[in-house]
Here is the input.
Amino acid sequence: MASNNFFVPASVTSSGRPVLVPNEVECNLLSNVDIEHDQDDAVSFPPLKSGHFILTTHRLLFLSSSCSSTAVAIPLSVITHIFSSKRSLKSVFHSPRFRFQVSATPDNRILDSDPGRVTGLRSVVITVVVRGKGDWELFLSKMWECWRGRAWETTPSETGPASASASASLYASDGLVRMVGVGGLLRKEQEMWESTDRSLQEAFQDLNALMNKAKEMVMLAEKMRQKLLAGSSSQSNSANDEELGSKEEMQDWLLSVGIVSPVTKESAGALYHQQLSRQLADFVKIPLERAGGMINLIDVYCLFNRARGTALISPDDLSQACSLWEKFDVPVMLRKFDSGVMVIQSKSHSDEEVFGRLRALVTKPEALRHGISASDAAMTLGIAPAMAKEHLLTAEGKGLLCRDISPDGFRFYINLFSEIILDDLFLVKDYGIYSTWVKASSASGFW
Amino acid sequence: DQYRLLGENVAKLRTDLMKEQLATFRSQLEDFARKHKNDIRKNPTFRSQFHEMCAKVGVDPLASNKGFWAELLGIGDFYYELGVQIVEICLATRPHNGGLINLQELCNLLRQRRKSNREAVSEDDCLRAISKLKVLGNGYEVISVGKKKLVRSVPTELNKDHNQILELAQAQGFVTVDEVERRLSWTSGRAIDALDILLEEGLAMVDDGHRDRKRRYWFPCASSISSSMGADS
Here is the structure.
């Protein structure tokens, strides 16, 4: 661009913003445009690629994205004609573009001053190719307005440096932008636009760079992990403590980068999870009491995070922390049912204890006749129906209960089959549940 | 013995290297966060792109609250909170739909709930939050039935037969035994078995009130019910 003299150079501030003359106001902006010329023009300039195209009341400015310290301008005064944009079939496939015509001098420069004084002018058609997603039709219509407005013909009054164009000028004398008046509003809008677009582009670039670094970290972490695993198997026990120490550190680091390693027999997981594990064990005591000794893991997730308010823990954090309980001496445990449901159970509410209570419930005369449902069990055990159902199913699995599916629903009965001898099917032992059942059933007048 | 000491020193060297690399990574992430934390918060497309790239690289930014990602970018809280809200909505709607809810409906209910939040929640965000919840058991999963996605919040396993019925139900919100037999070419026994299980699990409701005496099975999850369901309790 340095060699191109066609356009009028424009000055920019250190942060890449164009310097405007007094009274000049930015009106619109298109990002990612190319500036080209028609092939059949004798006068030519090297095409400008990929830059911001800014419309002001006085000029059209092109700021290259790659080289933000240089900019060129086309004064609106040299525009002789703006072509109306025609929609054609061709335009569907190409990037939108619009054209306008300017006067150029014989020595291949845009006319920078009063046309009256120069002879031998040529017309050059400039094409603006809009590759970005901006509203170019709006830009074009604003361009018409600005061109017709001829703001450059009204000279600003020369009354002292800072005061005069106080309300109109966007740049104070110290070069800083002043957000005042309509100019200020327009400017804010554009700044927002421009910064959104620019920052998203920048954001993606930064994201790429970050991901490359993350990839490196992942590879490094893998290498370290392999080394530690290999090291622990070959080195003697005396080095073990140090190994363990660094293993936990290692886990912490992996966690920081975002690599989850499962809790294994050898490792105790990250220090973070160990601490969380103890914290959780304490937290969960009261809810467990209230829930009768068993809570759904997902309920704990919600409860814990709600209590925390901020710096919430992830589901993985919770799962890891709970699985660490078996390594510590805590009064709670994590339990997974066949259905996939995971619960936190208080160790005092062991299976044996629950089965005892269930057996007591299911051998009552009512229950012997009609069985129990999940809600009955729930009421007796003092836990949620869903949890009760899990217990009933487990008890069935252990041979304590039998299920009965009927139009009345899903009910459970005490398992009598264990007392029935195959060889003597009708023998009822005097003492046993079978006889109790017979007594209970006959009492109701079934037979 | 010397060799062991040497080995330890070498290990220590590596540890220091790792620490250094970690510090560099962290500061790079800090820079990124300073410039683009807002972009991630406000722009669902950028957010989704961010996640895809993390997955490609092999890191899980939502794995732990302790991770740099959650700490510096602050997206952890966003998704974990979303998880909590999704669980609450699923629980609240379970009496009605048996634990299976249309993803769109879930997102709508979520957005209503989060009206005060300026952060937009996309379907992609919901899907990610739900995929994280999976690890807690309870069967949180997204299943595809026909063209729609359903979110399951109970451990009920649905087999292919059930899925086909659900897909059929998406047209009108209900099916009849005849329709199932006719459209899927099943025997009546097969249709009734499948429908009975769906009833048992609470996913369907029976409607015997039509003049033609044909029983209709309604599926709350398959029809797009507007959220005039009342309070989220």
